[in-house]
Q: What sequence folds into this?
């Protein structure tokens, strides 16, 4: 989840990534409240003191997971929005890619959605900025389709929120190897989105 930077000690990068991956495992399994820094350190193969070299608190780790998850989801829907000038195909791509991201990253998504309340006020505000940006990207795509006479949407904000919720809800129950794959569910969501909004 973390990107490397030029001039940064690769040993430090590796340690940070190990901690983030360990935090994801622990938070997904035990929840934020049920996880200790000792749990995270043990999963990362490090001492508890080593956690504080890279993060000043357990909440700081949660924030890193949350903000990186939101950035990734925002990047996905932004790229999908730019993938076509046709409003229907753009909407199809956006819903498909957003849903697939949540299926492929269901553990991270579960943490991001259900541990949001555990963030500090400052960190929640920063994460909320990405949430609003994701919603606006979908709203803009719907509004553009309406302006072109291709989509029929009476409530753009409400419809955008509902379409995004199709993908977000996957983190609540989706598990790899289930009766339907992430691709199948993403395709279903994309088809539903088009059927609900295309002008007939």
A:
């Amino acid at each position: 989840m973390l990107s490397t930077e030029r001039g940064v000690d690769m040993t430090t990068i590796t340690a940070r990534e190990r901690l983030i991956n360990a935090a994801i495992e622990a938070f997904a399994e035990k929840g934020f409240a049920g996880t200790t820094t000792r749990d995270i350190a043990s999963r990362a193969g490090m001492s508890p003191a080593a956690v504080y070299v890279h993060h000043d608190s357990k909440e700081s780790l949660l924030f890193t997971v949350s903000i990186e998850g939101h950035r990734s989801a925002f990047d996905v829907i932004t790229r999908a929005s730019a993938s076509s000038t046709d409003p229907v195909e753009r909407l199809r791509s956006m819903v498909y890619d957003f849903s697939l991201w949540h299926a492929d990253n269901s553990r991270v998504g579960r943490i991001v959605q259900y541990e949001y309340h555990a963030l500090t006020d400052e960190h929640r505000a920063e994460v909320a900025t990405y949430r609003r940006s994701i919603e606006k990207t979908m709203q803009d795509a719907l509004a553009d389709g309406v302006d072109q006479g291709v989509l029929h949407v009476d409530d753009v904000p409400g419809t955008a929120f509902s379409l995004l919720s199709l993908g977000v809800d996957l983190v609540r129950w989706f598990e790899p190897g289930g009766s339907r794959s992430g691709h199948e569910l993403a395709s279903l969501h994309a088809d539903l989105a088009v059927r609900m909004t295309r002008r007939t």
About this structure: Confidence is low (pLDDT under 50) at residues 1-11.
